[in-house]
Each structure stands twice: as C-alpha cells, then as structure tokens.
Amino acid sequence: MKKMSQDTVCVQAGWQPKNGEPRVLPICQSTTFKYSSSEEMGRLFDLEESGYFYSRLQNPTCDTVASKICELEGGVAAMLTSSGQAANYYAVFNICEAGDHVICSNSVYGGTFNLLGTTMKKQGIQCTFVDPDAPAEELEKAFQPNTKAVLAETLANPTLVVLDIEKFADLAHKHHVPLIIDNTFATPINCRPFEWGADIVTHSTTKYMDGHAVTLGGCIVDSGNFDWEANRDKFPGLTQPDESYHGIIYTQKFGKAAYITKATSQLMRDLGSMQSPINAFLLNLGLETLHLRVPRHCENAMKVAEFLQNHEKVAWVDYPGLKESKYYELAQKYLPNGTCGVISFGLKGGRQEAVTMMDHLQMIAIVTHVADARTCILHPASHTHRQMTDEQLREAGIAPDLMRLSVGIESADDIIEDLRQAIENI
Ligand SMILES: *Cc1c(COP(=O)(O)O)cnc(C)c1O
Q: Per-residue pLDDT for 396 more than 80?
C-alpha cells in the first residue's frame, strides 16, 4: 500500500489486529508478562530479544500508541512518557551527564525553563538560554566544547514565538549535536520538524493530542538521522559499552533505534515515568480525531483573532496567523496550514479591565490549561504569576494585561459572542 496520508495515519496507524483479535486497541492493564522458560525471560534482560516483562519499562498499549505518533512525525522509533515534562527530561538526559551543557531557546514553556535552568543544573548539566530570534552568528557564541544538544519549541507556549527550525538545525549540526524540538503546540498535523532538519521531537500529549483534557502524557520520537557514531566521543552513553547491560553498545546493536532503546532500557528502568496503559488508550482516542480538531482550532482562532483585532476596546492581539504578527513570515514557511488555537491579547485600560472582562464570560471558562476542545482563558498576572508586580511581569516578558485565550472547537460565532458581551459589559 502506498504511504498513507496524515488523516488516515491518525485513524488507522498503531494497532493492527490479526485474525480474531479486537478491532479496537486493547488496554494491557498488566504490570507483568508471563514466559514459559527462564531462558526466554533471561534473553529479554540481556536485550538479546525484544519483548515485554515489566510495565515500568514498556507496555504493549503504550508502544502501540507511540508507534502511531512515530508515524505521524515520520520518525523511526518512539516512546511514551507519563508527562510532557518527563519527555523533555529524558530526551535531554539520555545524551547528557554531569559536566555537560545544553542550549535552549529562552521562550520555551515555563516547566521546561525550570527543568533545564534549575533541576538539571543541580544534576550538573548547565544550560544557556538564547533568544530564538537572534542571528546565527550571535547564537553561535552559546556553543561550548561540552555542548550536547539544542532544544526549542516549534511554536512556543505561551509566547507563540515561531522557531526558525532550519536556522537552529544548521547551527546544531555544525557543532555536531542534535536538535530536539518540542512540537506540542504545532502537532505533526501542522508541522513535521524532521522535514526541516530536527533530530528528535518531543510532545506534551496532554495538549492537542489528547485534546479533551483527560490525560497527562508525553512522547519522544527519534528521526534516526543523527549520526551518533560519527561523534563517538561526544555521546559515550550511546557509543560505548553499557556495563549495566553486559557491555552492549547501543549504536552497534540497535542502529537507528539506539537512542530510544537506551532511553527505554536505561532511563525508564532506573527512573520510571511510563504512561499508564489506560491513559495511552485515551490518548489514542484523541489521536483518532487530531486531523479534524487541529484545523478547526486554527480556523476558530483565526476568526477570534480577527474579531479582537477589530474591537475598539482591544489594545493588542498576538497570533502568528495574523499578517500583522512579527512571526507571520516564519509561520507561513513552517506552518502553512495553520498555527494553533492559542491567542494572546490585552484590553485598553490594562490589568483591571482584564479581570472584569473575564468575570463576565459565560461559556469561556477560566482554567489553567490550554489546547483542548473547550475554549478557556487565563490571565497570568492574576493566576500563574500573581505574586509579581507589573514591573516584574514586564521583565519576565509578560504584559500585565496579557490574557491567554485557548480557542476550542465550539462554534466560532458562540466564542466571539461570549467575548463580545464580556468586553462590552466591562
Ligand atoms: C504543557 C507543556 C509541557 C509540559 O507537559 P506536561 O504534560 O504538562 O508535563 C511541555 N512543553 C510544552 C510546549 C507544553 O505546552
């Protein structure tokens, strides 16, 4: 059969039942797996044979869903994790250790910023945060001899900075390190970072992939393109014997699957964080409609952004789909079919007007979440960042009047109507 379209992959990839097996992905709710001889079980522990033995490392339901995301991204191997945080942590820690250094865009999600800037720093891994819009010559200065990876988001949460992926990929490769892209907001429906030179993709599947705000989850996908062997000395964890597995060398034994195999057999074994099978099942239901929901989120967000832009009480609107956006050109290049459902905007008057407007909303809910089916709104100055003064907020790049609106898949007319009456009732 010729290569299937993304729409068909969303619905059909992953679970392929054999004769008489369930049509729908089974939930393997089992911590353990049975073998008839101790010899067979032993071979699994030596990584001589692939197979399941304990769900802390691998579970068939999770692997099946990971294989669907792998196909959507066009990768060679993938694994699920219990959260997006775990995905980014493992993606980096799989190729770094104490004494190493990574480079990360300074506009990444707050959780990733803390992970790299605080927690991994305590583990001895240093991070330099860079301005993603800086010219290549400027970014070049961040590289050190011990740099092991570059990390950034296709479409940053919540600043909606659109990354020039090719610029970042060229820089990373020039310095012999992989580019890791968090593709959560774009999803593979709107952008496939491997096509632009990224080596590894991560996801918080909690957002659009699940899409219904029911399960936390993450995923790591490897393109199989980065040549670890050509940079043997930089990546000893992959290219030199693993004494905890009788001296196997991941790149020699597993080829293009080396990176994911190591993350599974070493990091999952030692640190845990596998997604639970029931969560993977729910994630798969979300994936089955991803190709329908993502375009609708984008279409609705575009209409809402245009409405806000033309409203006299609205001070500013930030949405990369708008021609006026600083990121319009990059969005046209990397996300030609649409960006995402998230918009930032502010009202004339500022912080207090934002609070009053939000209290007048009837359908749109105030919640700490983005990227699910229901339209929701958050005001960082009153919620996630409420301990900060206006001045501190501005320093952190968050306008005191900024509201983050995550446009859902309801009727655009109803979303706009709710915003209209709330703004007019201030
Ligand atoms: C939410 C988010 C994360 C963290 O994911 P969790 O599933 O909440 O752990 C990481 N990256 C991006 C871009 C996100 O939006």
A: no
Locate the ligand 1 atom nearest the alpha carbon of residue 185 and give its number: 13
CATH number of domain containing 348: 3.90.1150.10
User: pLDDT by residue (tens digit) across 315-331?
Assistant: 999 999 999 999 999 99
Distance between the two ends of the chain, CA-based, in angstroms? 58
Q: Are residues 252 and 385 in the same domain?
A: no
- 1 lies in some domain: no
Structure tokens at 2: 């010729």
Report d(CA 360, CA 297) in Å as an integer.
Answer: 23
Whether the predicted model's global pTM rises above the 0.85 cut: yes
Q: For a ligand 1 pocket test, name from 81, 82, 85 the mutation site with the most ligand atoms within 8 angstroms of its C-beta.
A: 85
Residues 100 and 240 in one domain: yes
Type of residue numbered 82: S
Q: Please tell me the distance from the alpha carbon of residue 375 to that of residue 94, in angstroms, as a whole number.
A: 36
- CA of 204 from ligand 1 middle (Å) equals 5
Cα–Cα distance for residue pair 188/185, rounded to 1 Å: 9
Q: Whose CA is nearest to atom 7 of ligand 1?
A: 84
Structure-block tokens of residue 352:
């207090």
Nearest to 347 by CA among 385, 377, 387: 377
Residues 156, 186: Cα–Cα separation, whole Å: 9
Q: Which helix (H) or strand (E) holds 351?
A: helix 351-359
What domain range is 264 assigned to? 6-286
Encode pLDDT of 275-295 as tens digits: 999 999 999 999 999 999 999
For residue 158, cis peptide bond before it (omega within 30 degrees of 0):
yes
